[in-house]
Design brief:
- Chains A, B: This is NADH:ubiquinone reductase (non-electrogenic).
- Chains A, B: It is an enzyme of class 1 (oxidoreductase).
- Chains A, B: InterPro entries: FAD/NAD-bd_sf, FAD/NAD-binding_dom, NDH-2.
- Chains A, B: Belongs to the NADH dehydrogenase family.
- 2 copies of one chain form a homodimer.
- Chain A starts with a strand and ends in an 11-residue tail after the last helix.
- Chain A has 11 helices and 26 strands.
- By secondary structure, chain A is α/β, with parallel strands linked by helices.
- Chain A has 2 domains: about 180 residues, FAD/NAD(P)-binding domain (3-Layer(bba) Sandwich); about 140 residues, FAD/NAD(P)-binding domain (3-Layer(bba) Sandwich), CATH 3.50.50.
- In chain A, helix 1 runs parallel beside helix 9.
- In chain A, helix 7 links the parallel strand 12 and strand 13.
- The radius of gyration of chain A is 23 Å and the shape is elongated.
- Chain A is about 35% helix and about 25% strand.
- At the A-B interface, strand 4, strand 5, helix 5 and helix 11 of A face strand 4, strand 5, helix 5 and helix 11 of B.
Chain lengths: ~425, ~425
């Protein structure tokens, strides 16, 4: 009997879900199949809470888990920490930094990376947030800015240290701004003697005329008012023109700030050799079964895939991961003459189940939008908290982390305020 | 009334204890006194458990706490994150990277740093363990070695990745070796497919004829046997001659290893301008009241101080911190005409209360020595665990961390196995 090899590129929500599902199917149905997951990092990241690591609310270990320990119960799964470099679609080979892998089925789930819209030189002065390393860099930058302000004698320089600019008013920018406002105005309020962290200036700059574009205008306006009440300055309709060290220039103005954070754009990770139709932001236009044209053995899932009506969010990646795992199981079973409990002869299309979206602004403050129905405030925050706690528990299986986190979170005393190289 | 300024250099066990005690005395007795603590890091480190961060058993946030949050309840205490550069003993001024501070009393508690015995060039190939950053570097090196071994095809190179050499058989070296043996032989045993982490080679090299010199010969021998049973190779009486990238040369032999850890020596941090009698390892010979000759206003405490009969351990630093806090309170009260509950006219000498020493070898295995009485095994480990849990709780005040830690620890499933830049 032919032995299949499934390769998964990327251990994010899409890739890890697909790996777990396929691992189970291989074990339970005794499919003649081996699976290899490649990722450049050794951990899966719970990205929706990464802004908390960046703002010292959570430790890196609270929101990341080694990919190996998530998958070590599946003997047929091999995990390799490598960088994927190139693909040969015709030969069905994936080339990595250390070698190459032949595949029968390939699942690409490489996600997005920070995109400075062609201004990569800005990356030195303006930190983006995508990896755990980014989160740590931003946390160090923020905490260091307060420390430098405390010992700085020149009031002008001091003000620069106490100014934080966030570029981009999407969910990431909004969550960073809210968490930064709470950090400076609540958590740190008693910590300094020469400066008053409450007086820090937190500015959110957005090129569009309103923040949180994916939400309804009403919710977006409520979020804006809420952030302003928390002390965040919001500048709208101002595209950024230039970023230098400690200075940001936008249409009609300029701000000096030692900490500038970039939450304005991401683009799909590019893989040389993957010459298929793409969106402007690099996402790959997939067919309705998430494969690419002419290659029914290559699936693209998660943020990297573009399919009408499916947003680039974690729940979509998870649903796609489950779908491709089932689809590949179906095909391998069919080709191996194994029977499945369901009728496996007909191909299926991926259907996205919209679970709505939510963004948190701060403690007790969040927005929830489910199709055309949206609400904000404390109830929205409770919904946000419960959903994240439940997802994080199933993901980490460590209740104690959550207890600890909830405790620190509610007391405004985050435990992760460590500056370290 | 004259206002006093006490400056503390260093936020380790000695400095932080002194700051907390003095903070309380200033507040309760209304002493006319301000206090400034300077440290180059923003956190206090629970050093006795740093080897756990280095071997992925604990997260950085579990064993470190921001100095500011430990001291923010004392309004008279100012914390500055700066590097101390030089001292002028005559003018009573401490110079730092950002300015200078005049003091009436100075407490120096700068601790030790890794010492390569004049071979600073070894530091690039051989990691020392003193700061939280060091702990993270070592953890990344260890985890990365396993990842590289997993994808390496050349068996010789693979063996190099799976060889870990620890130089120095003192408590740090022994704890690192034991934790590394458990990590590779227990925690990681199911994680890989191409390598067997159980077959990693863990070598402890010591120049002296036995490990753990401060302990009795009997305990040292028992520790050696215990480590060997855990799979650690112990090489005695072999001084290191040269360390290169991936290679260590010692008297009579050579080992190729991609990970070489240095636990063979430390020396006291040196402060330009502090021209006083010192030991060979740079520790300052203090008088019986912990001051330096000719300068009754300058105290040196913790690992940086050398006093006959007092070892360089955390309990000694804590006792010294309490002593100088009381001594300075006494002097300020006396000079300000305030009365104290005790007779304050007579100077006192520092007395060290020996609380014994202990070293852990692994789960359920430790050594305890109290003066001439020593024991090892499970009871010793329970004593070690209780003392560390109690100290860590009082230090962190966060029971949940301990619950989480104990749980992960007992299951051999440490949660901190994250590789990150």
């Amino acid at each position: 009997m032919r032995n299949f090899h499934v390769v998964i590129g990327g251990g994010g929500f899409g890739g890890l879900t697909a790996a777990k599902r396929l691992g189970k199917e291989i074990r339970n149905r005794k499919l003649p199949c081996k699976l290899t997951l490649i990722d450049k990092e050794n951990h899966h990241l719970f990205q929706p809470l990464l802004y908390q690591v960046a703002t010292a609310g959570l430790a890196a270990t609270d929101i990341a888990v080694p990919i190996r320990s998530e998958l070590n119960r599946f003997e047929q799964i091999d995990v390799r920490m490598e960088t994927i470099e190139r693909i040969d679609l015709e030969q069905k080979i994936l080339f990595s930094s250390k070698g190459s892998l032949s595949y029968d089925f390939l699942i690409l789930s490489l996600g997005m990376r920070v995109n400075y819209f062609g201004h990569d030189e800005w990356s030195s002065f303006c930190l983006g947030l995508k990896t755990l390393g980014d989160g740590r860099l931003i946390r160090n930058a923020i905490l260091n800015a307060f420390e430098q302000a405390e010992i700085e004698k020149d009031p002008k320089e001091q003000q620069k240290y106490l100014t934080f600019v966030i570029v981009g008013g999407g969910p990431t920018g909004v969550e960073l701004a809210g968490a930064l406002a709470e950090l400076s105005k609540k958590s740190l309020k008693k910590d300094f003697r020469n400066i008053d962290p409450k007086k820090s200036r937190i500015v959110l700059i957005e090129a569009a005329p309103r923040i949180l574009l994916p939400y309804t205008e009403r919710l977006s306006m409520q979020a804006r008012r809420c952030l302003e009440k928390m002390g965040v300055e919001i500048i709208l309709s101002r595209p950024v023109e230039k970023i230098e060290k400690g200075k940001i220039i936008f249409k009609g103005g300029m701000i000096e700030a030692s900490t500038i954070l970039w939450a304005a754009g991401v683009c799909a990770v590019q893989l040389p050799g993957l010459d298929v139709p793409k969106e402007k932001d690099g996402r790959i236009k997939v067919l309705e079964d998430l494969t690419i044209p002419g290659h029914p053995e290559v699936f693209v899932i998660g943020d990297m895939a573009s399919l009408p009506g499916v947003p680039a969010v974690a729940p979509a990646a998870i649903q796609m991961g489950k779908y491709v795992a089932y689809e590949i199981t179906r095909r391998i079973a069919f080709q191996s003459g194994l029977s499945l409990d369901r009728d496996v002869s007909k191909p299926t299309a991926f259907h996205y189940l919209d679970k709505g979206m939510m963004t948190t602004l701060g403690r007790g403050k969040a927005l929830v939008q489910f199709r055309n129905f949206g609400f904000n405030g404390f109830i929205a925050w409770i919904v946000w908290l419960l959903i994240h706690i439940i997802t994080l528990i199933s993901f980490r299986n460590r209740l104690s982390v959550l207890i600890q986190w909830a405790w620190a979170y509610l007391r405004f005393q985050p435990g992760a305020r460590l500056l370290s190289k």
